[in-house]
Specification:
Blueprint: E1 2-6, E2 20-24, E3 31-34, H1 40-47, E4 54-58, H2 70-80, E5 86-92, H3 95-105, E6 115-122, H4 133-144, E7 154-155, E8 160-161, E9 171-174, E10 177-182, E11 188-194, E12 199-203, H5 213-216, E13 221-225, H6 233-238, H7 244-254, E14 259-262, H8 270-284, E15 290-292, E16 298-301, E17 307-309
Parallel strand pairs: 3-4, 4-5, 5-6, 6-7, 6-8, 12-13, 13-14, 14-15
Antiparallel strand pairs: 1-2, 1-16, 2-3, 9-10, 10-11, 11-12, 16-17
Helix pairs in contact: 7-8
Length: 313
């Protein structure tokens, strides 16, 4: 199952939370998250998913609307997960520093032998120039910052080297999980998840998904951002984002069997998202089904690779 816990961008709104997607595996009951915006833990409770079954969180990039929920959720899981279990967090360089610092300074401890494994994707390229002088200064500050030491309950791992993509631009992260780079304002990736039959691809923020074509080739479901409509394409692309038509064109090009649009501007109401969905469907021109994600909406990937929506529209 795919459970959309947050389908918005930038900042939370009363009707839409920031980015978080839960992937629930029926075979073993485990739950993975892709991104973890600041409302993720509240939405997990509302969804009925068991926070204690979250075993892996794959972060696409380090912008706050994709990461601010991590410290709170990890604090809860560290104290409530099954004894001797391991929670793994994967993300571009900086994810270890973010979590080590926030968890140490908040005195977050782990109980019952719970372990935390932080796996960094080193060398993910930054494919857009800094958006402002302030951004360039921040990049220099990051390079100079000393690294926080490992947490007492952390299983230390070597970074996964991603500087030279192999296998057609796909980086193998771990069992059932691969990644590829995307064009955004900071290093960003998309993930391919083998659910055990069906295959899912979830892309982070992107204004050009070309480098992830091999990653997404023939997937049963592609989740792709569609922040604003086609009338704002120029400003959308310059800020590192995509329109519904761009998402649909890419999905058709890679032969995806279904497309779910996601990561909508928080300024859009439901009617605005409906217009984005219409744009995506028009661009797809019947070549594949196109859906819009919504808060707590559930999609099921069947064993045959079909996508069934709990509330289709």
């Amino acid at each position: 199952d795919l459970v959309f816990l947050g389908t918005g961008s930038s900042f939370p709104a009363p009707h839409r939370h920031t980015a978080c997607l839960a992937v629930r595996f029926h075979a073993d009951g485990d739950c993975w998250l892709v991104d973890c915006g600041e409302s993720a833990q509240v939405q997990l409770v509302r969804s009925g998913l068991d926070r204690r079954r979250v075993s892996r969180i794959a972060v696409t990039h380090l912008h706050g609307d994709h990461t601010y929920g991590l410290p709170g959720l990890l604090s809860t899981v560290a104290g409530r997960a099954a004894p001797d279990s391991t929670l793994e967090v994967v993300g571009p360089s900086g994810i270890r520093q973010l979590l080590r610092t926030s968890l140490a300074l908040t005195r977050t401890d782990a109980r019952n032998g719970v372990r935390l494994r932080l796996r960094e994707l080193a060398g993910v390229p930054s494919l857009m120039p800094p958006s402002s002088p302030g951004s360039a200064e921040l990049e220099n500050l990051i390079l100079r910052a000393p690294e926080f030491p490992p947490l007492p309950y952390e299983d230390v791992t070597e970074p996964i080297q991603c500087a030279a993509p192999d296998g057609g631009g796909i980086w193998r992260v771990c069992d059932r999980l691969s990644a590829a780079p995307l064009r955004h304002r900071i290093p960003c990736v998309g993930y391919r998840i083998d659910i055990g039959g069906p295959v899912l691809a979830v892309l982070g923020d992107t204004c050009d998904s070309q480098l992830a074509e091999s990653l997404c080739r023939g997937v049963d479901c592609l989740v792709h951002e569609a922040t604003v409509g086609e009338s704002r394409r120029d400003s959308c692309v310059s800020s590192g984002h995509s329109t519904p038509a761009m998402a649909a064109e890419f999905a058709c090009r890679v032969g995806a069997k279904a497309l779910v649009l996601n990561h909508f501007s928080p300024l859009l109401d439901n009617a605005g998202v409906a217009r984005l969905l219409a744009e995506g469907r028009a661009a797809a021109a019947g070549r594949l089904p196109v859906f819009a994600a919504d808060e707590l909406r559930v999609f099921q990937l069947t064993d045959q690779g079909g996508l069934v929506c709990s509330d289709p529209h």
